[in-house]
Amino acid sequence: MLNSNFSVAVVVSNGKRSAMWYSEKLGFESSVQGHWVTVWPKGAGWKIHLCQKPKNKLEPGNTGISFYAKDVERTVKELKKRGVKFETEFTKTEWGSLAMLKDPDGNDIWINEDAP
In this predicted model, what pLDDT tens digit does every residue of 84-111 receive, in sequence order? Predict the structure, then answer.
């Protein structure tokens, strides 16, 4: 089921450059896995997803909210039993598993694989 880890997107013009700033200036840890760039304070259970977008705009409905689960597939199945509708079904990628649901107002909420 969902745990206490989460990430929030912050729109930036250059993800790698911003990650370097957070690391150098704020002492944050960072991870760059393709387009998925995250930063966080050491020991934190949350991360900031540095979401690189032109014109500093997220696509409509993208809240940037991600919850983490050790077993995304099982979590999706459990949430579907509760009537949750998924916009993006359980998907495995080279960087981890994910799914995306929409809240009653159409806002996107991601479920991502919790890093080991």
Answer: 889 999 999 988 899 998 876 677 889 9
Residue with token string 């998907």: 91
Q: Which residues make Cβ contacts (< 8 Å) with residue 20, sequence separation at least 6? A: 30
Quote the CA–CA distance of 39 and 37 in Å, as a whole number: 7
Question: CA-to-CA distance for 50 and 37, rounded, in angstroms?
Answer: 5
Phi, psi of 31 (to 5 degrees): -145, 130
Model confidence at 57: pLDDT above 70:
no
Measured between alpha carbons, how far is 24 from 89 in angstroms, rounded to an integer? 37
Strand partners, 91: 98
CA gap 17, 13 in Å, rounded: 9
- pTM for the complete prediction? 0.60
Instruction: Assess whether pLDDT exceeds 60 at residue 116.
Output: no
Cα of 110 vs its chain's centroid, Å = 6
CATH code of the domain made up of 6-113: 3.10.180.10
What residue type is assigned to position 5 of the chain? N
